[in-house]
Fold:
Amino acid sequence: MDRSVAPMKGPPADRRGSLFFSRSLGDHCVHMGVELEGLTPKAIPGQFFLIRERGVLDPLLGRPLALVASKGNVLEFLFRISGRGTARLASLPPGAALELRGPCGNGFPEPVGDELVLVAGTLGIAPFIGISSFSSEKVRITAVLGVPGKGWEKFVEWCLERFPGIRINSDDGSIGRHGDPVEDTLSFVGQGHEVWGCGPEAMLRGLGRVHEKGCEKLLVSLEKRMACGTGGCLGCSIRTGSGMKRVCVDGPVFEWREVFGGAHGK
Amino acid sequence: MESSLRTNVGGVNLETPVIVASGVWPMDPRLWPAGSMEGVGAVCSKGMTFEPREGNRGFRIMETYAGILNSIGLQNYGVEHFIAKELPLLDNSCRPVIVNIAFETLEDLRRILERLKVCRSMVGVVEMNVSCPNVSRGGLSWGVHTESLGNAVSMARQVWEGPLWVKLSPQVPSMGEFARLSQECGAQAVVVGNTWLGMAIDNDLERPFFENVFAGLSGPAIFPLALRAVWEAAGAVNIPVIGCGGIARPGDALSMILAGASAVEVGTALFIDSGLPASICRELEANLTKKGLASVRELVGRARNDQGENGEKSR
Ligand SMILES: Cc1cc2nc3c(=O)[nH]c(=O)nc-3n(C[C@H](O)[C@H](O)[C@H](O)COP(=O)(O)OP(=O)(O)OC[C@H]3O[C@@H](n4cnc5c(N)ncnc54)[C@H](O)[C@@H]3O)c2cc1C
Ligand SMILES: Cc1cc2nc3c(=O)[nH]c(=O)nc-3n(C[C@H](O)[C@H](O)[C@H](O)COP(=O)(O)O)c2cc1C
Ligand code: FES
Structure:
């Protein structure tokens, strides 16, 4: 993912692909590569694809997964096994036929300043993996991760390879610092830091406290159930300070204040 | 598209008999997935009400076995915004726009249709969604009671001179009777049908999953139910029937047409396959060639040719 290449303009497309590799990162997560047929779309961090097994009507819907990286014709994703669809995806053999709709959504913009803090709750790290290769060299990135703890060692190791200085927090204290990533972030951020968050809603909401530390810019990537991924079904609508928005086309990346700020965010 | 697929249904000319159902693609064609308009004969707009509506709170979509439950709650910006902003965009799609309307009172219905008259040339068809609640009947949907259905369709017919379709609710005791009533009150086609009422329980929280408790079931799971409803309606009316519900493969559309549908609407399946309309058209063309037929109109109802009145084989 490279900023020099303009993000793909226009709507997403349905694309055929096949499972190129699938590596388990412990019991909970999978790092997956999908080889696309035809042209590889240009996409930016924060954009996502709806992924499903081709030709299968049950489970029906594509699962929204953030693009982690793209190398040649292979798109990489990182996902948590949490239900029927992701369990199926995790069990597929290489070569399995997949269908992808994307790239969907707005993605992250260029950071305004040169101090960027990325705060991730477990798999919330996915859209951030490509940021360093994508933003200007003068941007200094600090990544903060929160995981439950035991059982997540392999996942954390994988993240460390990509973000050598990543600050690790775990709920049970078994890996890294004992605590949550928001508290950790609050312990060091201040004026001049731009903060981006991705993870569970409660974490994102709590991240609003960085405003009190003087951080002006706070962006969050939201998760909502989706059907169409292209702004039609209104299944992913949210109320915001500027009216109803669709997470799949107006987001998933929003200004924190727009979604959690006013009365609509309660 | 081949001219063999050209047809006229309920007062409108269609290049193909495949229509995008209401509530699946955005009102702005610039957001439609690349290539998704190939094979599409017309596009239904999202259900529109007189006043803007924010739609339902809580979860709006839930995947079920081979289907989805939705509880969107008719989120839309109201008729004025539709006319000023959305209809002109849809009109750019170069296909008839089927304007899907919802109303809580007869007065709302009248006001929407009066407003639509100002942009008559951009409205291909008005499609009445009679699954929406009738406030004067305590929120029961218009389409499940003969009296309220009859009143609504008759009122619409008086006010709206252009093509008028009624999109029936499947929650009726007799699809044939409700289709016939729509015809008698002036509908030029019936769409059979909308989503089927269902629900889900969150077992952990021990409460209904959706804030509105009930939600509409769509997708492949409902196809056999919808096909049966199309069969019944087509046996009861002379106006065209448009088959809608669960079409997910080209053969499903063909089955609907053989059962008596003059056209089909495709909804949920577009969430997973934006190329379905084009695949349906290819299937229909291949079927015509195989049978040596010249027009898709000749396929309509062929499965019922040797059926008796009550749908049983007469041979
Ligand atoms: C824009 C976006 C990007 C995402 N990126 C990632 C990622 O990179 N890695 C990752 O592990 N997860 C990501 N998620 C969350 C991921 O989509 C869900 O975990 C996944 O869809 C759950 O599917 P399932 O088959 O495991 O669960 P099931 O319970 O079988 O899912 C049932 C339905 O609910 C939907 N659903 C359930 N949970 C979620 C959720 N949290 N968010 C959205 N839809 C949900 C499913 O898509 C499906 O339609 C992202 C979500 C969004 C909206
Ligand atoms: C998310 C969603 C939104 C819908 N919105 C409308 C609507 O606004 N008006 C309407 O008449 N039908 C609406 N429908 C019903 C569809 O147009 C269609 O009749 C129904 O889903 C059955 O067809 P399908 O199984 O092909 O989807 C909606 C369906 C879905 C899934
Ligand atoms: S998923 Fe359909 S509008 Fe966002």
Observations:
- The pocket of flavin mononucleotide (ligand 2) is lined by residues A 233, 235; B 21-23, 46-47, 70, 72, 74, 100, 129, 167, 194-195, 218-219, 222, 244-247, 266-269 (CB under 6 Å).
